[in-house]
Structure formats: structure tokens, C-alpha cells
User: What shape does this take?
Amino acid sequence: MKTAEIRGLSDAELENKITEVRKAGFQLRLRAVYGQVKNTAEARKLRKELAQYLTIQRERELGIERQSASRKTKR
Assistant: This one.
């Protein structure tokens, strides 16, 4: 999911996504213990996705507005 799409989510939807990714990460770790993981890059993908969700959640808590890449000024 792209950052712009994540920013479009409501607070409740964002919280649900965070919960889903945490559960998926837990399940992945369990499967890794039993040797059932074939795609080890999946863990990295989940960590990155969780970090994106948590960052946007924290920005909302602090009241930080982010500009899109196209609106940034060149120096």
C-alpha cells in the first residue's frame, strides 16, 4: 500500500491495519520456528509495512501534516 493510500485511511482503519500486520508477523515467526517459511523476505516486508502504519499514526498524534512529493519545493 502506498503512503498516500495509507494517509487516506481513517484512524480506525489504520488501527485495524496495524493489528492485522502484527498478527501476520506473529504467525510468520511461528511458521519460521517450525521451518515452514519459504519466503524469508516476507518478514522484512511486514516490518516495513508496520513501520509505515505506525509512523503515520504517530504523525496524526502529533498533528504533523506531510506534503506530497510533487508539492515540495526545489532548492
Observations:
- The mean pLDDT is 90.
